[in-house]
């Protein structure tokens, strides 16, 4: 009986050690960020619109450039309750450590949005399948390529009578669809997929209609981004580092749209 108890204790200790090795260390950062964006919208034919825009993102407490993002896409109004859309974005990120622009990434989004009005409040739910392709070489056990994320956004807009201002609230979740599962050794262990919510975002904003063609959007987002930095030894394949990076971001933005 003592031998059995000893064997069980050793097994439990071994399993506990493995669990500890696969438990990430935690890193927390806070940052104030900014976004400046210009958009163009043109209704090509009835209910079908072409949209294009450029966005500049700032980070490190507004002190440096984080990304320049260019987007072009189409949106189709199926009826007054549903919209379908697809767009392409070119992402140019700046690496502050090496002081160089990183290799660009290509992003394709497919959007489905439904909306309904209740009095003077309009509720909308947008589901976005986001696919991001990297142009650098990565270990699929560390980073997926392409990366698949499902973004779910709920928004409520309040229509103020006889006013050019439209305030709104929003909440968004990002759910990973093909994140790599962490293993002790990627050369020995089977590749697996992990799914988890990687981002929580809550925001408040107000839209201002200057004229029928010119509009502004002012907003603030509180953004909690939970990412995992996984690092394996290239030769042996052993897990070298596993860090859960929690980023708390305060994002202030302004967007201008010209509607033809």
Structural notes for this entry:
The chain is mainly beta and about 260 residues long. It has one domain: Porin, CATH 2.40.160. It has 1 helix and 14 strands; from the N terminus they run αββββββββββββββ. The radius of gyration is 23 Å and the shape is elongated. It starts with a helix and ends with a strand. The N terminus is likely disordered.
- Strand order in the sheet with the most strands: 1-2-3-4-6-7-8-9-12-13-14
**Structural classification:** mainly beta
What is the H/E string? HEEEEEEEEEEEEEE
Task: Using the coordinates shown, work out and report the CATH topology.
Answer: Porin
What is the overall number of helices?
1
Assembly state (oligomeric):
single chain
Number of domains as seen in the coordinates: 1
Q: What is the distance, rounded to the nearest whole angstrom, between the alpha carbons of the first and last residues?
A: 83 Å
Helical residues, percent: under 10%
Note the beta-strand portion.
over 45%
Rg = 23 Å
What is the average of the pLDDT values? 92
What general form does the structure show? elongated
Supply the CATH class. Answer: Mainly Beta
DSSP, total strands: 14
Main β-sheet description: 11 strands, mixed, barrel
Q: Would you identify the regions where 5 or more consecutive residues have pLDDT less than 50?
A: 1-20
Please give the CATH architecture: Beta Barrel
């Amino acid at each position: 009986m003592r031998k059995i108890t000893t064997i069980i204790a050793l097994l439990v200790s071994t399993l506990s050690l493995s669990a500890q090795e696969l438990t990430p260390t935690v890193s927390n950062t806070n940052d104030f960020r900014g976004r400046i964006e210009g958009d163009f919208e043109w209704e090509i034919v009835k209910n079908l619109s072409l949209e294009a825009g450029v966005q500049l993102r700032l980070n490190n407490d507004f002190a440096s450039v984080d990304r320049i993002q260019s987007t072009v896409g189409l949106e189709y109004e199926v009826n007054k309750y549903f919209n379908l859309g697809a767009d392409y974005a070119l992402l140019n990120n700046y690496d502050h450590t090496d002081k160089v622009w990183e290799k660009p990434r290509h992003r394709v989004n497919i959007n489905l949005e439904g909306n309904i009005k209740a009095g003077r409040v309009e509720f909308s739910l947008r589901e976005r399948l986001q696919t991001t392709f990297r142009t650098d070489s990565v270990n699929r056990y560390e980073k997926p390529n392409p990366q698949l994320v499902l973004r779910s956004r709920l928004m409520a807009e309040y229509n103020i009578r006889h006013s050019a201002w439209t305030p709104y609230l929003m909440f968004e979740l990002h759910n990973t669809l093909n994140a790599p599962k962490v293993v002790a050794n990627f050369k020995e262990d089977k590749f697996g997929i992990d799914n988890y919510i990687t981002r929580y975002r809550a925001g408040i904003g107000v839209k201002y209609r200057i004229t029928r063609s010119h509009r502004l959007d002012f907003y603030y987002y509180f953004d909690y981004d939970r990412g995992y930095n996984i690092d394996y030894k290239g030769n042996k394949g052993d897990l070298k580092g596993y860090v859960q990076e929690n980023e708390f971001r305060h994002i202030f933005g302004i967007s201008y749209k010209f509607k033809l």
